[in-house]
Amino acid sequence: MLEVRGLSFSYGDFSIEGATLEVKEGEVVTLLGPNGSGKTTILKAIYGLLKPKERCVFIDGRDFHGLPIRERAKLAGYVPQSHTPPFPYTVLDVVVTGLASQLGPFESPRKEHYEKALEKLGLLGLERLKDKPYTQLSGGQMQLVLIARALVQEPRVLLLDEPTAHLDFKNQVKVLGIVKRLAREEGISAIMTLHDPNLASLYSDRIALVKDGKIRAAGRPHEVLREEMLRDVYGVPVCVLEFDGFRLILPRTEVIQ
Ligand SMILES: Nc1ncnc2c1ncn2[C@@H]1O[C@H](COP(=O)(O)OP(=O)(O)OP(=O)(O)O)[C@@H](O)[C@H]1O
Ligand SMILES: [Mg+2]
């Protein structure tokens, strides 16, 4: 289980103030909020790419930022919003880099590492791209490869920053389905950011609404995705419809013909 107890961080002119979150084993929690509200900053500070003001991240009760880097890599996997490698590695090699922390300093990846990487590529339907240079992939394909790279670590906690940003309709559903299944079947704690409140509603156990560096509300999708709250956070009128057991969130805007 991931616990974030009062995370604070400042870039100078932008701060995260006292973000508190819990992601239980098997749960998917989504950070939802406008551009620049602090979602990526929160994920990076949880993962340790940014240093919070105080130690505040615990995985299964252990102070995550106090652990050696190899232990941290076994516990948590991070999928960045975007990533450009410096060399034209093949797709398979990029996925294998997810295992770097499990190898010794001069140790090369072995057969079993490549097999594990191929298995994760297969899970995401990417086997046929394994020998292609990563730099020649489409944005959506790159994103799927980065997800495979995080999965190959078989982490307890998975952090995904806009995992659906460049994906087509089918792959959005596929990737979020995989995240949910991993949470349910492997007991992974998943925390991600999304922009689409409808996808967040469908795939999250809980949602945290972020605005101006603060978590404004957190709870089950039906508790958080309310017209007034969404209007307050995004500054646009929103209409929430109940349909066939689903919630549909639509902007209440004038349609220009
Ligand atoms: N490296 C940085 N140095 C200084 N300020 C930064 C840096 N990175 C981000 N910021 C600022 O921090 C704020 C929050 O940025 P962040 O990337 O966390 O937002 P976000 O919610 O992920 O937005 P988006 O939905 O557009 O990805 C923004 O005002 C941004 O300008
Ligand atoms: Mg972001």
TrEMBL record:
<feature type="domain" description="ABC transporter">
    <location>
        <begin position="2"/>
        <end position="237"/>
    </location>
</feature>
<dbReference type="GO" id="GO:0016887">
    <property type="term" value="F:ATP hydrolysis activity"/>
</dbReference>
<dbReference type="Pfam" id="PF00005">
    <property type="entry name" value="ABC_tran"/>
</dbReference>
<dbReference type="InterPro" id="IPR017871">
    <property type="entry name" value="ABC_transporter-like_CS"/>
</dbReference>
<dbReference type="InterPro" id="IPR027417">
    <property type="entry name" value="P-loop_NTPase"/>
</dbReference>
<keyword id="KW-0813">Transport</keyword>
<dbReference type="InterPro" id="IPR003593">
    <property type="entry name" value="AAA+_ATPase"/>
</dbReference>
<dbReference type="InterPro" id="IPR003439">
    <property type="entry name" value="ABC_transporter-like_ATP-bd"/>
</dbReference>
<keyword id="KW-0547">Nucleotide-binding</keyword>
<protein>
    <submittedName>
        <fullName>ABC transporter related ATPase component</fullName>
    </submittedName>
</protein>
<dbReference type="GO" id="GO:0005524">
    <property type="term" value="F:ATP binding"/>
</dbReference>
<dbReference type="InterPro" id="IPR050153">
    <property type="entry name" value="Metal_Ion_Import_ABC"/>
</dbReference>
<keyword id="KW-0067">ATP-binding</keyword>
